[in-house]
Structure formats: structure tokens, C-alpha cells
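Hi everyone, sorry if this is the wrong subforum. Our group has a chain we'd like a structural model of before ordering constructs, and none of us has done structure prediction before. Sequence below.
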Amino acid sequence: MASASASASISLSFSSSLIPSPLLQDRNKSISAIKHRDYHASVFGVVRCAFASPARRKSTSSSSSSSSSSSSAVGKKKLWKQGEFPGTSEAFMEGRSRKTPIKNIKKKLDRKNNAKAWANTAAEALSDLVLKKQWLQALEVFEMLREQPFYQPKEGTYMKLLVLLGKSGQPLRAQQLFDTMVEEGCEPTAELYTALLASYCRSNLIDEAFSILNQMKTLPCCQPDVFTYSTLLKVCVDASRFEQVESLYEEMDERSITPNTVTQNIVLSGYGKAGKFDQMEKVLSGMLESTSSKPDVWTMNTILSLFGNKGHIEIMEKWYEKFRNFGIEPETRTFNILIGAYGKKRMYDKMSSVMEFMRKLQFPWTTSTYNNVIEAFSDVGDAKNMEYTFDQMRAEGMRADTKTFCCLIRGYANAGLFHKVVSSVQLAGKLEIPENTSFYNAVISACAKAEDLIEMEKVFNRMKDKQCQPDSTTYSIMVEAYKKEGMNDKIYDLEQERQRMVDDGPKGDEAFSMESVVNV
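Answer:
Right subforum, don't worry. Here is the predicted structure as C-alpha cells:
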């Protein structure tokens, strides 16, 4: 039976493609044979389709179509109507071939997610650098983020960087950042302009700060407010430009901007530092009578700090009692001011009493508290008590800052312990303490006291390499060191270098005169 089927299959597969021979003489016999063949072909085809695998349906169909088309006279391609045959059209297959494979889509999504994760990590690093006041590294990370197409800096990011650059004495970089922000389509605000203005003020570039003020006046959405004027008032009083202080007050009155307590405290402090006690008393009296700028704890701290820094301990104590009677409660900073004042006058008993009083009232000792105590011992070169205070500070988990290490370096230098100056600088680097102008000035001063002018010059060069701007104190220390050794050529080189820096652009501290230092 199997052999019969096989022979039928073989004869069917070949005979379906053969043309009947004209040599056959019996026409009826031929017709009968053809009918018999067609019957077997139809039966075999049905059976084959029923048992064929799905993968072979396409080949069977195409084979059947091919067989039909070859047997037909016109060789026309069969066109299936919609819904007639559940096959796959050529157009559909072409469309499928153009589709992106799922694995490629997954790769793209993974790359995008990895990029976003990197951006989040970089943004966190940027925030951390801003908190650590490491402005140069912060700018580098910010530039890396800006190169990413999906990163859009926000106003808050620009604000943080502008404030950081201002506090770091980098007004020109702050201006460049501000210009970049505007070019990229971020709309400036009065707050951003004020931050830029403050960066110039912190570098004592008063004319440039007033230029920003005039620019703000021309912009309807960036009009100066009380914070803008307060910033300008502070730099004017610090520079003893009291005529401009009066001019700013008049301008505020014309614009219906009422000075607040912060504004008055700034002017109050400026008059006091300049020794203009009559004007200071006038401002204070106006605050006591005012409803919008009543004295607060900041007013109290300003007055106490003023007399404490001048060494007028009795007057400071009397004002403390007056403010307490006025109903103003002291805060941690108030007690820190008292500690600092007593420490400078070497009144260690009163200094200790204030610290004990803070503990009793559950006021926390802060970094400033410890800094004031360390500074008190540093000024007299008491390395033993200075170290003890520093060790206690670290034991309580209090983080040291730049001022802490400035005091330590000065204290060791005053005590003649220059090897400990080196170890303090190394520890500051290990703790990632921000190295600002005051820090380098302390190290340069220590080198000068050790009469190590070579090391002093190395520190000075490192200072410039770190984009840390020298100020009048820096030049004064170095000039005095060179004068002791009679190195007039070095003094001349310093003057030439300072002049080049001034010519390259406003860097702050332009009022410093080298000749005035040399001729002292």
C-alpha cells in the first residue's frame, strides 16, 4: 500500500507537468487516464494540506499557485481579496522589515537612562562643590552638564553659582556666567542681577556695581529692590563713601522703597566702623521710633561687635543690657561676639563664663564659638591651649572651616612652631578646606616669619595657580619680608606684576598702592 502511494506520488509529481503525447491512438483512453489522474491529484492535495506543518503552508500555497499559473495559459498572479486569505502581504512584510528591533530600542533606552543617571550624579556633585565653596571645580562640572542635550540649567543653579563666585572674589567669572545664561535664553531676574551686583561689591568694584544698578533701571522686569540697595549701601559704607550712602537713601525714597531693618543695620555698622558715632546714634534712634525697621537681634549684634572689636568692653556690656531691657533676646552669635571680644582683651575668665552660660541655657557651641577661642590663643601664640580647643572641637564633631586653619597657622607661626604650620596646611588639604585669600595670606605670613622667602614665593605662585586673587594684605606681607632682606628688585617685580593684573581687568582691591606700603 505504501509503495502504491509512493508510486502515485511520483507519477503525480511528474505527470502534472507533462503534455499528453500525440502518439496515443485511443483518444477515449487518454481522456479516461487524464480524469483518473486529476481525481488522484485532488485527493492527494487535500490529504497533504491536512497533515502539512504550518511552516510549509506558504510553500504549499506557492507551489499550488505556481502549479496553477504554469498550467494556465496567461500566467496571471492570483490577487487575494481583503479577508479572503489569511496570509501576509508583501507590503506588510516590507513594513515589518523597516521596524527597529526591540533589542535596539532597549539599548537606546538604557543609554538614555544611563545618561540621566550620570546627569543626576553630576548635579549632586555640583551641589556638593558649591557647598564646599570650590568654585573652580564647580564651574568645570557645570560646563560638563551644559554639554548634555537633555540638561537645562535652572535659575536656582545660576543663582548658586553667581553667589559662590561672588563670595570667592571672582566677579569677572560671575559676569561671564551671567552673559552665558542670557545667551542661552534664561530670562534674568532682579534677584540674579542683584547676585551679580553683589559679586562686584564683594571685590570692592563699586563703579561696576553702580553700572549694574543703572542697567537694572532700564529693564521693566528687573527693577532694583530693597535688597539691591542694601547691597550697594554696604559696600559704600565699608568704603567710607558716605556721600553715596545719602544719595542711595534719596533714590530709595523717590522709588518708594522703604529701608528695612537689614538696611539700617548695614548703615549703622558702617557709621560705627568709620567712627561716626553721631550718625550711628541718629540711625539707631530712628530705628527705635520706626514701625518698619525696629531694632532686632542683628542690630544688637552689630552694636556689640562694633564696640567689642574696638576693645570698648564696658560700652559693649552697657549696650548689651540696653538691648535686653528693650526686649531683644540674645542668640548664639551674640554670645560668640562677646567671647571674641573678651578673648582679644585676654579676659579669659569672662570668656569662660559666657561659654558656661551658653551651656546652661542650652545654646550650642558652634564653629564660630571655637574659632573665637582658638583665635584668642592664636594671637598670643599659646599653642597648647589652642591645640586643646581644636581637639575638643573635633571630638564634638564640629567641622573646622577656613578661619579655623587660618587661626591655627597664625598661632603656630607666632609660637615659632613652623613644622606644625606645615602639618596644619596638609591637614587642611586632607579635610578639603577651601583655600581662599585669607588662607594663603596666613601661610605666606608664616613663611615670612620663618624667613623662608623661597617657600613664601612658592606659596604665592600656588595661590595664583589656584585662581586665588592676592589682595593688599598679600602684597604688604611680601614687601615687608623683602624689605628686611633689602631685596628692592623683588619689591619692584611685585609692583610690576600687580600693575599687569590691574591692566588685564578689574580684579578688586584697586585702591591698594605699593608705594604707600614701601614708604611706611
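For your construct planning: The CA atoms of residues 73 and 109 lie 56 Å apart. Confidence is low (pLDDT under 50) at residues 1-31, 33-76, 84-93, 506-520.
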